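A quick word before the example. In earlier lectures we treated sequence and structure as two separate objects. From today on, think of them as two lines of the same record. Here is Transcription elongation factor GreA written that way.
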Amino acid sequence: MNPSFGHGARSQLINQLLYFDEQSTAFFDGFCPQQGRERANLEKLIDQYTAALERILAQDETQLMQSLYSQVLIGSSVKVKYQDDGTEETFTIVFPTLTAPDKNYVSLLSPMGRQLLLASAGAVQTIEIPAGSFAVMIEEVKYAYFGEFTQTG
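And the structure line, produced from the sequence above:
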């Protein structure tokens, strides 16, 4: 595997960790301003996510690369296989301002994004969205994100 990719990915993950450390209040206020159950759930998800990032960043380069291909992070491309009909679809989990449905860029705040974030390759997961629920197999995870998040996109 390309060592510069691992270094670049590590830098991106550090930037995500710094962002959530330094800008979490602005993030929550901007995307979930009301106190309550929804915000508490989002705060819990981001706490779990940042804890996972800390564990991943503590790894050596080989382990880091393995994590980038085994756990869904912000910036991961995720290939899912629908269990009911066997069709496959690929999504990329992104920050909310980078959502692009035509490219299958799914916000980490969307119902699908929240449920795929931190999922593991090989896992079968039931995804619940407003249109219904469906079981998917996480076929493949690839970290590929090199964009930056800003409030304006």
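Notice the following. The longest strand covers residues 132-143. We will return to this example when we discuss secondary structure assignment.
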